[in-house]
Amino acid sequence: MKFETLATQGFIDLKKQNHAVSTPIYANTAYSFDSIEHALNLFDLKVEGDIYSRLSNPSNDMIEKRIAALEGGVGALATSSGQSAVLITILNIAQCGDEIITSSKIYGGTYNLFSKTFKQMGIKFIFIDSDNLEDYENAITDKTKCIYTETLGNPSIKVADIEGLANIAHKHGIPLVVDNTVPTPYLCRPIEFGADIIVHSTTKYISGHGNAMGGIIVDSGKFDWSQNDKFPMYTEPDESYHGIIYTKEFGNMAFIVKSRAHLVRDLGCIQSPFNAYLTQLGLESLHVRMERHCENAMKVAKHLEKHPHINFVNYPYLESSPDYKLAQKYLKHGASSLIGFGVNGDGTKFIEALNLFIHATNLGDVRSVITYPAGTTHRQLSAEQKIRAGITDDFMRASIGLENIDDIIEDLENAIRISRT
Ligand SMILES: *Cc1c(COP(=O)(O)O)cnc(C)c1O
Fold it and tell me: Which CATH number fits the domain 287-419, given the four candidates 3.40.50.2020, 2.40.50.140, 3.90.1150.10, 3.40.50.300?
């Protein structure tokens, strides 16, 4: 099945859902066992099935199957938020004493998780400032367990060289993890370029209507966790499951099975079935929405690019973008709807003069949303950290929505004018 068909009809089993055309919500906590033997087999991971909704649930299963297929992976795990998808992914790869290499230009929430919480847990992140692949490779040590990147960095809107990073990671026997939130699998399928694990905040474009927190982890099934002695969590017995060895028992599903059976079991950050239901509704129109998000964003980017009172425009599909070549390689139908730009005027006045753009910290909503990172999300960063994250005082980040393009541009024009009064 092609993307659009998978997104709308993939994995529906009408008989299993009482012939209901739209998949219902399974608002269940627990699932009954057929027999003692059935229960034991479920607990020993010998048969598939639902036990308790902290582990799995049919509503979650639907989005997991669809998004795994859309990304080209072997399995997925829906989590309570994008943050918890990142948390589970890292804990499923690294332990105290390990190191991970990433870019300094990543999403602010991920930056905090990496630089503070994981540091407290003894997992060290090395933040690379440049886009130079050699700098990533030079940072690898015996302790390095993965490279982590974002297809489209948020908020600085950089395009990652996924294939280049995957080659380096694989040369050193470690996986590449890619946060694919901003392009979604409709615009980019990082697994095709060598990425091993994909994470998403489904809160953004995938659910798309600004009403459901969620995250998802997709396993490509391509990384061999037993190729070296770097990942003992996979090759040594797990005593909490009668000594199973994940790579032996689950082969190319080892990562995604362990993320659920071990980490979500223990940490509890599973997606709620209600949110999975909303996420599924969003997913069913993802391809249509992404087309219009990209079309509107391109028009806004072109308009601002030639504007006398705009200091710069950051949109990877503009030919003037330093990332234009990478964008053409990695992003299929457009560069999603995040645009960065600098207003030559008073930033606060600009934000407050907007009527149609909603001032909020979100992206990927059907409505146009604007954030002023230097004044809000990145306020807690030091001046030096702001520069490292590519945030200047005039920098605005807009997520262009699905409103009429003339209304969007008129709202921006009006606010630019007022910002200069
Ligand atoms: C929002 C976001 C996250 C975190 O997701 P939540 O759903 O807010 O927890 C992670 N990565 C990127 C790129 C994001 O935009």
Answer: 3.90.1150.10
Check if 181 has its Cβ closer than 6 Å to any atom of ligand 1: yes
* 49 CA → ligand 1 middle, Å: 29
CA of 40 to the centre of ligand 1 (A): 37
Angle of the 273-283 helix axis to the 58-71 helix axis, nearest 10: 40
CATH number for the region 3-282 comes to 3.40.640.10
Specify the 3-state DSSP secondary structure of 19: coil
pTM attached to this predicted model: 0.96
Residue burial 237-248, b: 16+ Cβ < 10 Å; e: rest? ebeebeebebbe
Cβ of 205 closer than 6 Å to ligand 1, yes or no, is no
Q: Is 201 in the pocket of ligand 1 (CB under 6 A)?
A: yes
Burial of residue 182 (number of CB atoms within 10 Å: 0-12, 13-18, 19+): buried
Distance of CA 235 from the midpoint of ligand 1 (Å)? 31
Tell me the pLDDT tens digit for each residue of 13-66. 999 999 999 889 999 999 999 999 999 999 888 899 999 999 999 999 999 999
Token pair of 113, please?
Answer: 């998780």
Residue spans per domain, the chain: 3-282, 287-419
Integer Cα distance of 289 and 408 in angstroms: 16
Residues 6 or more apart in contact with residue 290 via CB below 8 angstroms: 184, 186, 187, 205, 333, 334, 336
